[in-house]
Amino acid sequence: MLNWQPGLSTLLTLLIYPIAERVLSIPELFLLVLERVPPRTWPTLCLLSKSCAGIVQPHIWKTIAFNTPTAFKKIRPLIRKHGHHIETLDLDSLSQPCISSLLQELSSFRALPNITSLSLCHSQITPDQLSALLAKLPCLKDVDIRGCILHKHALEVLGQCKSVESIVFCQENVLLSPGYKLDTAFSPSTPLKRLGVT
Asked: With a threshold of 0.85, does the pTM exceed it?
């Protein structure tokens, strides 16, 4: 005769899983639970059911930060699958070689259509790299380039982007010719609503 004694985790799974499955099948309740659970545990919630995964995955992929090009290489297959959820791309503090590698990796993607926010704070992006990156982000609305050393050409590249509504940068990091006015960097058709100069 077997004397099987379930462990606490098994017992909790057997008792709680059916209740959790019912509660988590209601999206509004699930979002309330999600607000109170640490983000590092969200991937585990995806394993509960397809409906849970459908609710959690957009939150997991909402913001992606890359501090090395190898980080992108590691999750590239996942970006192909879940890239439509990404809304914010954080490339803060990347060097020119890292940005070049990242752009090379991104070259196989047609576009990342839902990214609306791009942060390049303290990165060493060149105007050509910026132009290549903007070509992959057709719905970009907000750009933060504080701490980047930029020439007027980089601002003009941003000024040509038809979807950008907000740009934040440090004036002391922009190398402008004497007498150059920021207004000339932006075309009249640019829907710029906010130009934040710190």
From this structure: no
